[in-house]
Amino acid sequence: MFFKFTTAGESHGKALVVIIEGLPAGVPVDVHQINLDLRRRQGGYGRGGRMKIEKDTAGLMSGVRHGKTLGSPIAIVIENRDFVHWQDVMSVDMPENEPRNSRRVTRPRPGHADLPGGQKYQTRDLRDILERASARETAARVAAGSLAKQFLSHFGIDIRSHVIKIGSVPEKPLFAEWEKIAAIKDDSLLNCADSSVESEMVALIDRAKAEGDTLGGIFEVVARGVVPGLGSHTSWTEKLDARIAMAIMSIQAVKAVEIGTGVENASLFGSQVHDEIFPADAGTGTIGAFSRKTNRAGGLEGGITNGEEIRVRGYLKPISTLRKALQSVDIETKSPEAAAFERSDITAVPAAGVIGESMLASVLANAVREKFGGDSLTEALRNYEAYLDSLRNY
After folding, report:
1. What phi, psi does 311 have (nearest 5°)?
2. Alpha-carbon distance 102 to 317, whole Å?
3. How far apart are CA 144 and CA 40, in angstroms?
4. What DSSP assignment string belongs to 199-253?
């Protein structure tokens, strides 16, 4: 892979770390924008008490000098402020004495990694599993994805997300044009393009909170300005839609991924689904001689971008930590018990959308690097401009 990142860190450990590789030299880096994206990830109605403690900021440790990338690996550290309350529990050193409150977990939560992780790694303290399985890890992903978005902006690519469903509201997932998504106000409680629907979503979240329950939902990520020709049909490993699906599915609590209107398409005739091809009208901003009037394919055909907006949806299950605890079994005593409770959110769909932006950006950044190469941003852009000329002449 040309662009990639690796994260490290536990939910209540000292810090999260991400190492980013594959950005060419000379890419301007806006640390303020990284921190804005980290703040967006922490927002959204229905979040838990942890968000009041953590004020995530990115500490760049390497790979950037005087505001531009060097072409070498970039290291970012995000400190966990809550670590001060967990130093004994999460110490890397073997304690001389058992901590007064070890916060040992032996009652696995249904729907979480607790039990299968404990079985796999043969640990009797499920905290060894849940600390890494926690979605807290995604703060590091958002930092990496923010850099990917900054890189992609030089190629005319913009990426945004919005919430299209929380629980059963609305009955059918919302559709919003790019302009409506871009117009969502910063103070939107749920990053929803329809304020009246958002009010209904808020009411449902309040109900779930009162009942000790949680909610899932659907977010959509949209990438605009993507040229035709990223990805390939030649191998299953090169298909860009497959890579995107994997990236979105990797987000904690996502259980299904949809590209374009894929779910609805499955119940229609082909004549109702496929996006017909027309000559491009002058002045529409379309690259090349072809255009579409619909985009049910979500910007991808045969594993290759076709120049339309990439639209991908992530379906989140309800969060698996409930105050109204579900039935479980204590792994030590094997007796029936209520599942453990860890501080958690009621819903995190808006945050998942921000994470989805970062994951889509990372996949697209890799595809752009594969296609246009270059050791420097200048070289990559020169190759990109040459490719645009070839599209105009096709």
Report:
1. -125, 120
2. 30
3. 14
4. HHHHHHHHHHHHTT----EEEEEEEESPPTT-B-SS-TTT-HHHHHHHHHHTSTT
Question: How many whole angstroms separate alpha carbon 382 and alpha carbon 392?
Answer: 16
DSSP 169: B
Q: What is the CA radius of gyration of the chain?
A: 22
Domains and their CATH numbers in the chain:
4-392 (3.60.150.10)
Greater confidence (82 vs 239) lies with 239
C-beta separation of 15 from 9 below 8 A = yes
* Joined tokens for residue 373: 């190469």
Confidence of residue 94 (pLDDT cuts 50, 70, 90): confident
Find the helix packing angle between 349-372 and 138-152, rounded to 10°.
50
Q: Return the amino acid letter for 90.
A: M
Nearest to 284 by CA among 267, 302, 308: 308
Rounded Cα gap, residues 232 and 121, in angstroms:
37
pTM of the model: 0.95
CA–CA distance, 220 with 206 (Å, rounded to integer): 23
Q: Is residue 1 over pLDDT 70?
A: no
Dump pLDDT digits (tens) for 165-204. 999 999 999 999 999 999 999 889 999 999 999 999 999 9
Nearest to 27 by CA among 153, 142, 131: 153
